[in-house]
């Protein structure tokens, strides 16, 4: 049997995640896409674990099932489609709404249903479900990085599953007794200290692994809806549907004051002030480090016209607070996902920052607003127009911290 992973006393959520990710990779249990770090990890045996959902009454009775888009849940999406249930999949990062409903073509073969269950199928065979789509979800299936037999769950740290659930409560799409299932490898079932749980954390009722089905009998209440005082303006910008839900809840008299609403006026000029401070603090030359970093240029696109370089049009965006361990490929992936791919990316990982070149100021500003609040590796990145634009010289721009 597998060694039980025991997070040490006092371990943070992030410690638990790292322990699970490292173990899955080191033991050869990790499956595509790899490495599993910073994802809901796919694992060998995920299909087997997914198949056992068909034996649960809560699955047989459900008509409408919400399943996250993660790779290890593909087998559940397929089982739902084969059982002719309505399948809802959250839109990636909730950028265009809350759900997509997967609609296979009529008379779809098993092969087509298989495609419908993949991330490709979610793109090709789905229709968006708006807030007025009157979704009535009978069963919720989420991915996890770690989960305890008591039903306490740790996700990958971006909070989307918790937020999706809270939004479904606000929409009236789930009730207090709507069951929540997670699918994990046996080694992801670990002890989780109760003090790690927040009131917005989603708990689970069933855990399916390749070898067993665990009914958690979890008594801890699930989130009762969106906890507005924990929501920031950045989250509202990133998740447009939150804005609509907030408006609705305001109409019915709920307190929808945001976390940063009170300090809003005080912070109106903060970015400029922060920039000045950053410049003042970091005028030390970077010497050898600087030259090594400058060679590390990642060019995203060859469409850059060299003649534009000095014309004052190219505008650089500064990305800071990148956690150690995040790779350039992860940033590139996020940039593509948020439709903010730059002409050129200058990665300076050792200084935990990067500079993105856009063709003009408007494009750069639009990228900044798309990327506001972007979180990688557990850190919210700092994204703003670079203080000194590239056309004023590489040296100055490299001196920004």
TrEMBL record:
One of its GO terms (cellular component) is cytoplasm. The keyword RNA-binding applies. InterPro entries: FTHF_cligase, FTHF_cligase-like_sf, MTHFSD_RRM, NagB/RpiA_transferase-like, Nucleotide-bd_a/b_plait_sf, RBD_domain_sf, RRM_dom. Pfam families: 5-FTHF_cyc-lig (PF01812), RRM_1 (PF00076). Keywords: RNA-binding. GO terms for molecular function: RNA binding. CDD domains: RRM_MTHFSD (cd12270). SUPFAM superfamilies: NagB/RpiA/CoA transferase-like (SSF100950), RNA-binding domain, RBD (SSF54928). Signal peptide: none annotated. SMART domains: RRM. This is Methenyltetrahydrofolate synthase domain-containing protein. Residues 315-388 form the RRM domain. The keyword RNA-binding applies. The gene is Mthfsd. Residues 276-304 are annotated as: Disordered. It comes from the Eukaryota.
């Amino acid at each position: 049997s597998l060694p039980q992973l025991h997070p040490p006393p006092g371990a943070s959520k992030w410690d638990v995640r790292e322990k699970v990710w490292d173990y899955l990779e080191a033991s050869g249990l990790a499956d595509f896409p790899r490495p599993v770090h910073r994802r809901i990890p796919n694992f060998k045996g995920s299909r087997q674990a997914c198949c056992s959902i068909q034996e649960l009454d809560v699955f047989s009775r459900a008509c409408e099932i919400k399943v996250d888009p993660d790779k290890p849940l593909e087998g559940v999406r397929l089982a739902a489609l084969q059982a002719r249930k309505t399948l809802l999949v959250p839109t990636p990062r909730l950028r265009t709404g809350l759900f997509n409903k997967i609609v296979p073509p009529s008379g779809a073969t098993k092969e087509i249903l298989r495609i419908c269950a993949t991330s490709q199928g979610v793109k090709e065979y789905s229709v968006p479900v708006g807030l007025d789509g009157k979704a009535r979800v009978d069963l919720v299936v989420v991915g996890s990085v770690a989960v305890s037999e008591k039903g306490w769950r740790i996700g990958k740290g971006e909070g989307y599953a918790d937020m999706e659930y809270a939004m479904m409560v606000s929409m009236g799409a789930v009730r207090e007794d709507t069951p929540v299932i997670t699918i994990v490898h046996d080694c992801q079932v670990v002890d989780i200290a109760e003090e790690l749980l927040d009131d917005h954390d989603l708990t689970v009722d069933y855990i399916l692994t390749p070898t067993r089905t665990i009914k958690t009998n979890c008594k801890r209440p699930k989130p009762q809806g969106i906890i507005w005082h924990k929501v920031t303006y950045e989250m509202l910008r990133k998740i447009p549907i939150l804005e609509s839900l907030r408006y609705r809840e305001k109409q019915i008299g709920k307190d929808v004051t945001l976390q940063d609403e009170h300090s809003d006026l005080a912070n109106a000029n903060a970015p400029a002030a922060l920039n000045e401070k950053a410049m003042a603090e970091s005028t030390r030359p970077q010497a050898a480090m600087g030259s090594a970093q400058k060679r590390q240029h990642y060019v995203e696109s060859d469409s850059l016209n060299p003649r534009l370089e000095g014309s004052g049009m190219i505008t650089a965006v500064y990305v800071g607070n990148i956690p150690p361990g995040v790779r350039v490929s992860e940033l590139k992936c996020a940039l593509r996902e948020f439709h903010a791919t730059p002409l050129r990316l200058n990665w300076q990982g050792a200084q935990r920052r990067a500079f993105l070149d856009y063709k003009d100021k408007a494009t750069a500003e639009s990228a900044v607003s798309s990327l506001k609040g972007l979180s990688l590796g557990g850190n919210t990145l700092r994204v703003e127009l670079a203080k000194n634009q590239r056309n004023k010289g590489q040296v100055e721009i490299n001196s920004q911290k």
